[in-house]
């Protein structure tokens, strides 16, 4: 049997089944590294205990969302949106960069009937699977403590999938610009302020108007608004958040695939 030339798979059209093969590969690997997923679940829980419960005893209720709600109820959906963001970004930046540079994983994969587009879409699919697992477990836990309104809060799961898609695509695009491991500090330089300012711990109206305008263009702000609306039935217009995140994800994915094809098929 003649081996397929390295460049041949670039001509193979995108097929969802081939993209799902990447998900199956990651599932087999994560059977041995599943504590990583536990860390993604426990991190927002710790934030919820520290800020939602600890600081919440001093803050009291949060007005301005259509009804006065407790501070833990305000913080919980924002932490879930942040967990979906972090999981997707970590998968398509840190993990993918290792596969691209240190491990050379994709060079081996592309000798099979897999296209670069299938690989990219498969990694995004896997980020969505991770996001769905984290969102479901987090939702179950906070529902036990009465912080989510069921059954309406079940909309959190598709919301988390959309957030995961948007940030996985952004992460996929970002990884094509990274020059070394040190560049990951630049990613944190963007993500940490976004986490702190995107109404995670404070309502939007506590900021001066110029800061509000800046916050309103952040993707995490729209993610928080979307999840908060599902959790509490309050917040901004969910349609705006859905359109924002969908367009962001589609555009970022399209550009990322082109850049990956240039990188892996020089």
From TrEMBL:
<feature type="transmembrane region" description="Helical">
    <location>
        <begin position="153"/>
        <end position="174"/>
    </location>
</feature>
<keyword id="KW-0046">Antibiotic resistance</keyword>
<feature type="domain" description="ABC transmembrane type-2">
    <location>
        <begin position="35"/>
        <end position="263"/>
    </location>
</feature>
<dbReference type="InterPro" id="IPR013525">
    <property type="entry name" value="ABC2_TM"/>
</dbReference>
<keyword id="KW-1003">Cell membrane</keyword>
<keyword id="KW-0813">Transport</keyword>
<feature type="transmembrane region" description="Helical">
    <location>
        <begin position="124"/>
        <end position="147"/>
    </location>
</feature>
<feature type="transmembrane region" description="Helical">
    <location>
        <begin position="239"/>
        <end position="257"/>
    </location>
</feature>
<keyword id="KW-0472">Membrane</keyword>
<dbReference type="InterPro" id="IPR000412">
    <property type="entry name" value="ABC_2_transport"/>
</dbReference>
<comment type="similarity">
    <text>Belongs to the ABC-2 integral membrane protein family.</text>
</comment>
<feature type="transmembrane region" description="Helical">
    <location>
        <begin position="34"/>
        <end position="59"/>
    </location>
</feature>
<dbReference type="InterPro" id="IPR051784">
    <property type="entry name" value="Nod_factor_ABC_transporter"/>
</dbReference>
<dbReference type="GO" id="GO:0140359">
    <property type="term" value="F:ABC-type transporter activity"/>
</dbReference>
<keyword id="KW-0812">Transmembrane</keyword>
<protein>
    <recommendedName>
        <fullName>Transport permease protein</fullName>
    </recommendedName>
</protein>
<dbReference type="InterPro" id="IPR047817">
    <property type="entry name" value="ABC2_TM_bact-type"/>
</dbReference>
<keyword id="KW-1133">Transmembrane helix</keyword>
<feature type="transmembrane region" description="Helical">
    <location>
        <begin position="71"/>
        <end position="89"/>
    </location>
</feature>
<dbReference type="GO" id="GO:0046677">
    <property type="term" value="P:response to antibiotic"/>
</dbReference>
<feature type="transmembrane region" description="Helical">
    <location>
        <begin position="186"/>
        <end position="204"/>
    </location>
</feature>
<dbReference type="GO" id="GO:0043190">
    <property type="term" value="C:ATP-binding cassette (ABC) transporter complex"/>
</dbReference>
<dbReference type="Pfam" id="PF01061">
    <property type="entry name" value="ABC2_membrane"/>
</dbReference>
């Amino acid at each position: 049997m003649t081996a397929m030339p390295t460049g041949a798979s670039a001509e193979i059209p995108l097929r969802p089944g081939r993209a799902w093969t990447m998900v199956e590969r990651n599932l087999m690997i994560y059977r041995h590294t599943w504590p990583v997923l536990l860390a993604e679940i426990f991190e927002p829980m710790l934030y919820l205990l520290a800020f939602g419960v600890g600081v919440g005893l001093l803050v009291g209720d949060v007005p301005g969302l259509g009804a006065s709600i407790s501070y833990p109820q305000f913080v919980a959906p924002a932490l879930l949106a942040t967990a979906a963001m972090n999981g997707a970004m970590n998968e398509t930046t840190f993990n993918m960069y290792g596969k691209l540079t240190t491990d050379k994983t994709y060079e081996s994969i592309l000798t099979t009937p897999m296209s670069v587009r299938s690989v990219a879409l498969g990694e995004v699919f896997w980020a969505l699977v991770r996001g769905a697992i984290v969102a479901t477990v987090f939702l179950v836990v906070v529902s036990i403590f009465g912080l989510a309104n069921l059954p309406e809060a079940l909309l959190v799961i598709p919301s988390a999938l959309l957030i995961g898609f948007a940030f996985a695509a952004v992460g996929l695009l970002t990884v094509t610009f990274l020059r070394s491991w040190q560049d990951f500090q630049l990613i944190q330089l963007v993500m940490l302020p976004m986490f702190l300012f995107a109404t995670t711990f404070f309502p939007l109206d506590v900021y001066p108007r110029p800061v509000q305008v800046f916050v309103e263009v952040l993707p995490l702000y729209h993610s928080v608004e979307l999840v908060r609306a599902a959790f509490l039935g309050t917040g901004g217009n969910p349609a705006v958040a859905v359109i924002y995140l969908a367009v962001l994800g589609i555009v970022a994915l399209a550009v990322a695939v082109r850049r990956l094809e240039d990188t892996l098929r020089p």
